[in-house]
Specification:
The protein has about 220 residues and is of the alpha/beta class. It folds into two domains: about 5-140, CBS-domain (Roll), CATH 3.10.580.10; about 145-215, Histidine-containing Protein, Chain: A, CATH 3.30.1340. It has eight helices and eight strands. The strands form three sheets. A three-stranded mixed β-sheet has the order 3-4-5. It starts with 5 loop residues before the first helix and ends in an 11-residue tail after the last strand.
């Protein structure tokens, strides 16, 4: 079985900013390249942080309105007021949560969910930027056709990994939903079959009605003496 990795679905040609890129320069990058965030890198492409649309909006939200009224944020004194963010270095979120190119998509989705971000810069072992992966990239496996999913389950999982005889399990796939029918010798084999088939890229849901000859999951528990 082969699972897609971050390297296979990430964007390799990444739009980046330098630490000295101005506020307007970043906004221009967003507009020109239709992106909502850019990694900030040094001349060696080592990742320093990430600037997103939220970072720019956060800065503008703190500005006073046209009548000079503050945006609900009060500072004890002008000396304690933070300086206006003018460059990527001042605007960026750092350190950035990152992914590795050899991660599978499940662990990447979990990392993205935990960090509550829409994308993750991808770095190599030296911290250099090699790509970026977004939520939409994680959904690409679900565009796989039903025939490709069925073939992988039949050939790679059932025949290749589990060494089941042909026609032991019948597989049908409809719009990513897998259904398994058939008969196996031992009931304990069914959860293994389901788990491996469910992990195939592009599977939306799985239903099984597999019969068994021997129930080796039910144990006779000796009553206490």
């Amino acid at each position: 079985m082969q699972h897609r990795t971050v390297f296979e679905v990430m964007t390799h040609d990444v739009v980046t900013a330098a630490p000295e890129t101005s506020f307007k320069g970043i906004a221009r990058l967003f507009a020109d390249h239709d992106v909502s965030a850019v990694p900030v890198v040094d001349p060696d492409r080592r990742l320093l942080g990430v600037v997103s649309e939220a970072d720019l909006l956060r800065t503008t939200a703190e500005l006073p309105d046209l009548e000079g009224r503050p945006a609900g944020i009060r500072w004890v004194s002008e000396e304690k007021r933070p300086p206006d963010a003018e460059t990527a270095a001042q605007l960026m979120t750092s350190p950035a949560v990152t992914a590795q190119s050899n991660w599978n998509l499940v662990e990447t989705a979990r990392a993205m969910h935990r960090a509550e971000v829409k994308r993750l810069p991808v770095t190599d072992e030296t911290g250099r930027l090699v790509g970026i992966i977004s939520r939409s990239d994680l959904l690409r496996p679900f565009l796989r056709g039903d025939t490709a999913i069925r073939d992988e389950i039949e050939h790679d999982v059932l025949a290749g990994t589990l060494r089941l005889a042909p026609d032991t399990i019948r597989v049908t796939v409809d719009d990513g939903v897998v259904r398994l029918t058939g008969r196996v010798d031992e009931r304990a084999d069914i959860p293994v079959i389901v788990r491996l088939c469910r992990s195939v890229d592009g599977v939306v849901a799985l239903h099984e009605s597999i019969e068994y000859a021997y129930d080796n999951l039910t144990l006779d528990v000796e009553p206490p003496r």
